[in-house]
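hiii so um. not sure if this is the right channel but i have a protein structure encoded as tokens and i wanna go backwards to a sequence. like what aa goes where. can anyone help
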């Protein structure tokens, strides 16, 4: 196979021109226009004082988003799992016990990442579509005495959100560190890092923060800083004279080495990677947009938008998935009705209406659709557009649903709130 046509001319393709879409899957979602705008602003050198000042501002902004006073609040470059991996790679020394309560796909991801760093992983599971009683997690912590409890907050694979407000307090008393993956909840669901006594939390931009994937805001407290600093090992070539290695086992990943990231993000400004400039601009702007709206106002918007969407779906006689008391407000799981080809409906919504909705993984594959109402997409017009398109595409598969009932039901929710 050749990389050039016969005449030797380069293969160029067309200049990029993606079709307009409304991204109503479980993420990525449409990006706030302000965020797209800042991404086209000029590069700065990574040690330009303007740029390092932006880094400091990012820390201040994300402390507010995470609701924490943690000094160590910064960005890991990479998609959300980069944040997960930085926390686990640095907090978990080979042989450490890590407990992972699993209620969906992303619990398995935590288990898998911890295992790659040679943790002794214990897990407990609950049926998909449900979450854990707090007592069950506390009992497992008591039984296994892990060094780290690693948990997902909202698992987009099942659309369920795990209450976390009491677990941290118990773990703090028991001397267990709590790590939380808040990728799908940060900015959309209440999350109180300090009040809930969560030691390390990571997220991504492409869900309720409505940025592009590629930057992972994380925060961790001094308890975590102390644990990871024992493992500090600065690369030769940038290591200041006379600085010895920490006594602990060297962190197995260079890229995800929190102590080196801390040196880069602190006044030491010790060079690590080259910060992803445009992604930092994006992350900074996402936080500004979310904070300017007000966190509580944003949570409320996510709650009422999913309520209106769900009223419309139920008016079409569609069944919502999972435990009603544990449903996320940013993603809705909908059972695919008997006799309906779920992939065909998704394809027609995309092709004919420009609306993307999500499929699902593992045991839920082919059983549910996942509809995201996150960030910029989380607005009234998205609800009406999505319900209209779903009604039309369902009817094309001879699904009987009263014309207009879905949109009427969504209107009723908004009118009740007006
Ligand atoms: C809860 C949760 N954790 C982690 C991830 C992984 O994120 P990424 O694909 O950005 O690495 C996702 C992505 O959907 C998620 O929903």
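sure thing!! here u go:
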């Amino acid at each position: 196979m050749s990389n050039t046509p016969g005449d030797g001319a380069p293969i160029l393709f067309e200049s990029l021109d993606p079709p307009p879409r409304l991204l109503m899957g479980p993420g990525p979602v449409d990006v706030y226009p302000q965020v797209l705008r800042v991404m086209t602003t000029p590069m700065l050198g990574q040690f330009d004082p303007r740029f390092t000042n932006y880094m400091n501002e990012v820390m201040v902004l994300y402390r507010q988003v995470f609701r924490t006073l943690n000094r160590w609040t910064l960005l890991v470059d990479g998609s959300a799992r980069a944040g997960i991996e930085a926390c686990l790679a640095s907090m978990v020394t080979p042989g450490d016990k890590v407990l992972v309560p699993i209620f969906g796909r992303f619990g398995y991801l935590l288990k898998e990442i911890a295992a790659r760093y040679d943790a002794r992983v214990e897990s407990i599971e609950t049926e998909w579509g449900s979450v854990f009683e707090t007592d069950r997690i506390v009992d497992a912590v008591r039984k296994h005495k892990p060094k780290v409890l690693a948990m997902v907050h909202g698992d987009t694979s099942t659309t369920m959100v795990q209450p976390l407000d009491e677990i941290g307090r118990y773990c703090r008393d028991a001397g267990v560190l709590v790590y939380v993956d808040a990728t799908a909840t940060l900015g959309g669901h209440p999350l109180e890092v300090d009040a809930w006594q969560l030691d390390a939390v990571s997220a991504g931009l492409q869900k309720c923060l409505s940025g592009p994937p590629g930057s992972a805001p994380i925060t961790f407290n001094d308890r975590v800083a102390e644990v990871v600093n024992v493992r500090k090992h600065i690369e030769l070539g940038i290591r200041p004279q006379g600085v010895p290695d920490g006594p602990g086992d060297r962190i197995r990943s260079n890229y995800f080495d929190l102590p080196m990231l801390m040196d880069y993000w602190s006044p030491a400004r010790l060079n690590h990677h080259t910060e992803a400039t445009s992604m930092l601009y994006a992350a900074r702007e996402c936080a500004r947009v979310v904070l300017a709206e007000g966190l509580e106002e944003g949570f409320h918007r996510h709650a009422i938008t999913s309520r209106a969407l769900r009223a419309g779906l139920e008016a079409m006689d569609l069944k919502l998935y999972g435990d009603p008391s544990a449903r996320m407000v940013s993603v809705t799981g909908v059972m695919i009705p008997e006799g309906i080809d779920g992939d065909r409906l998704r394809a027609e919504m995309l092709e004919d209406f420009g609306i993307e909705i999500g499929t699902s993984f593992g045991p839920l594959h082919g059983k549910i659709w996942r509809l995201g109402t996150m960030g910029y997409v989380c607005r009234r017009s998205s609800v009406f557009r999505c319900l209209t398109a779903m009604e039309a595409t369902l009817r094309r598969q001879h699904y009987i649903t009263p014309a207009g009932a879905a949109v009427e039901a969504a209107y009723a929710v908004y009118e009740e709130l007006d």
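oh and Residues 26-27, 79-81, 106, 152, 155-156, 181, 183-184, 204, 213 surround pyridoxal-5'-phosphate (CB under 6 Å).
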